[in-house]
Amino acid sequence: MGCSGLLILGLVLNVAHSLETQDGGSKGPIELRRNVTGYLGKEAYLSCRYVGESEIFSAKWKRQINSKVKSNSAQYRRIAGAINNNLFGRDGFSKPESATNLTVKVNVSSVEVEGEYTCEFDTEDENFSETVFLTVVAQPDIEVQVNAEIINGSHYQSVSCSAVGGRPLPQISWLVDGQPPSDDSYTVNVSDTAHSNGTSTLSSILRFPTHVQDEDSVTCVVQHPTLPNPKLTAVRVETYTRPNVTIKAEMTQQGGSEFWVVSCISSGGRPDTDISLALDTDEELNSVTSTDSVSAHLPVEEYEGHNVTCVFDHPKFTQKETRVITLPSLYLSVQLGNDTDENFQDIESLALQEGQTDTVISLQITGNVPRYNITCTKDDELLPEGMELVGSSLIVQGPLGHQHAGLYECFLSYHHLQAELKFNVTVNPPVIQPVPPTIRVDLQTEDGRSVIECSAADAVPAANMSWLLPEGVSGVSWFNFTSHNGSHSVGGVLLLPACSPWELTAECVINHPAFEKPENRSITLPLCGMLNRSDAPPNITVNRSTEWKDGEEYTKVECSVDSVATAASVTWHVGNSNISCVSESEVQADGLVSTHSSAHFLSSLYAGQDLTCTVEHPSLEAAEKRTIHIPVQKAHILSVSVVRQQDSPLWLAVCDCRGEGAGTNLAWVLPENAKSQTSLQPNYKGEIQARLTYQFPLGLHEGHNLTCVYQSKHGTTEEKTIHIPRYYITSVKVLNHTTPLQSRYGGEPVIHRLALQEHHQKQKVLLRVEGKVPEYDLICKRSDGSFVRMEGDAMVFQPEITEKDEGLYTCQASFYHHTATVNIQVEVMSEDKLYAMMAMICSSSGMGILIIFVVALWVCCKLNSRAAYKKQESLSPLTALMQEPGSPQVKQPLMTREGDKELAQLISYSIVIDVKSTV
């Protein structure tokens, strides 16, 4: 290395050596440390080294016999050294390293070791000496003690903190809630004691009344030269807690009487609260006292409306606390709970119906009395037979009669409170409920006349009946009435001609209270021409009806023919094929012949075809035909859907088939071992609805298709397919600014580091779930497993964040089996931490600037002073600095003694400055 490099190294080492020995120095060829500190009970080193070139005859450490008293005639004693290369040591001092290095080890067993020591070297030229002062210090032991006492009813505590066996005398201070005690309630007494071994004990007593201490500990701070930092000792002390005080009143019954139990309650306080109870009068109460309550029993009727006061006294109260409760005033009233009518006598009236059963007359009683007595009379006598008082209601057993009518009086009482109710009960005749009649109309022909009969039977009350004829038409009519078991029947007869030359309609009109409007029944007389002509054409009507049986639809077709003379011939056919049918004929009273032909068959046999009724009759020149179309059954509606079940982790696939005659031939195309279930539900229109369900976990069919197959009874097949979506959650992102901590095996962040401000309220960590899901559950937990409050997709810290909220948080988003997590390291940044971080950054920046300055200086020296590095004089001081104090071999000069001016060896130094900063 060149001269400039060695100069820079020498500069750095000289600075370091000066810092190390800033309290020492040397004169001439002696290097030593002038001031040495020794710890009592440990070992210390006195260092003295000769760096000259003269030969050493003798070297020694000596001490003034009375080193603490300086005098002109002081006497010294040798304690270690080297004479004629013979090393020696005595009085607790070790032998030195060599004649040139008088570094010795001293056993600091007592304070007597403290004093001034002289290092001397005798050479062939002259004698050299230097002095060193050894100071003895002792680290104190910390002892604490808490005592309590009561003075004039007040509780005091004294905390003693002693630094035992220290040298020099330590310093003791106190911290209460992190601050020095400034309240006048806190007093500090300090005393010190000297010991025979040269050490001392300092004691400090902190005294305070207990009620002013809110924290459960105080801190003793001891400062001493032997302690690198002040020693903090927390001492647990007793504290008082402010109690919660309440007053309450409860009603209880003892020995048939009611009492208010008024309680004064104190909870959660320390020490116990002094409680007293008083009335708003001068009366003294007999109370029951326990640890945390005082209670008194007060008769209800005597103390209603009185104020009761509880007085609480506690050291934490600046003044006595009072709680007042007012005992309620009793009241009692009664009125009729049923609907009543008002009258001028202010007596309530109640109207009831004769014959009604389960009659209850309710009395509405209001009040705050615990109980009451009640009696009721009717017309100043006992209640009638069959009526009794149950609770606050009059109940009538059996039907209500006239004997229950009259004036009722009910009396209520509780001690001095009374209430009275008078009400008049009237019993009205029963109301008859109308019963509608059964109406029938009939037409017969007798003796060439039409006899029309109309009846309205079994009605309550009896119906009114009348005839309504066309204008200009008259007939003979009469009515008869009959009654049976309270119901009435009315019959009417109307005589008209057997036929009419024109269309004639007679109407029977029935009026009854059960009808909103009169009921009419009409009869049409046949035309006289049809009765006289044998060739009159028949009247043909056809109709169709359907019915369901065992899931199948059946159709019934009917063909009715009204004709004169002989019965008509009726047949059914479809296309060229005949259909089996049932026919029957009946002769009517008017001489007409009615023929009915019907066919009953499965609807699916002739669906979509026309059925023809063929009628043959002598009055017809050709057969008459009537056609009925059989409709095709509606197509089945097949639908599939997938729903998420609320109370189950399984999804539900539903296949519905609806239509006429739909069966249960439904099936899911499923993998093996999959389970399904079916349910059959008919509806009111004859349609059948079949439902097939299948429960499955989402992961089993996610992204696949599910197919439902329906096969009808006729062999047709229909399919419906639904797609199960594929969902995924890729990650959970932290939207706040974070510092990612990378894994050593990959580039993805393992933990996101996030800093929050201390004591700021409602701070949030915003999250975002990446993926494709309709919804998701997002929860966050602390490292101890406790949950964090969430608002939407944000963690919320409230009311304010503290250092307790620091730690690792894990947030997980889930949708069924899809999950994704993120780890967040939350750090709480306080103002102290921020200032410390700024100081570290500034120091790191200053160190970097210093390195740049040293490198620039080195380059400048190398360019301007290249030749100077070969000179021996420039190496001598550096060589002396680089030698270790206790190694004679390293002490040999790097130059040869013959004065060779060439460099004996090349020494390389590498200075590495590692600056680390954590932000």
TrEMBL record:
Name listed for the protein in its UniProt record: Ig-like domain-containing protein
Similarity remark: Belongs to the nectin family.
SMART domains in the record: IG, IGc1
Pfam families with a match to the protein in the record: C2-set_2, V-set
InterPro entries registered for this protein in UniProt: CD80_C2-set (IPR013162), Ig-like_dom (IPR007110), Ig-like_dom_sf (IPR036179), Ig-like_fold (IPR013783), Ig_C1-set (IPR003597), Ig_sub (IPR003599), Ig_V-set (IPR013106), Nectin/Nectin-like (IPR051427)
First-listed, main subcellular location of the protein, grouped into a coarse class: membrane
Membrane topology, from the record: Single-pass membrane protein
Signal peptide residue numbers: 1-18
Gene3D superfamilies the UniProt entry points to: Immunoglobulins
Lineage top rank: taxon: Eukaryota
Localization per record: Membrane
CDD domains (UniProt xref): IgC1
Regions that span the bilayer: 834-861
Keywords: Cell adhesion, Disulfide bond, Glycoprotein, Membrane, Repeat, Signal, Transmembrane, Transmembrane helix
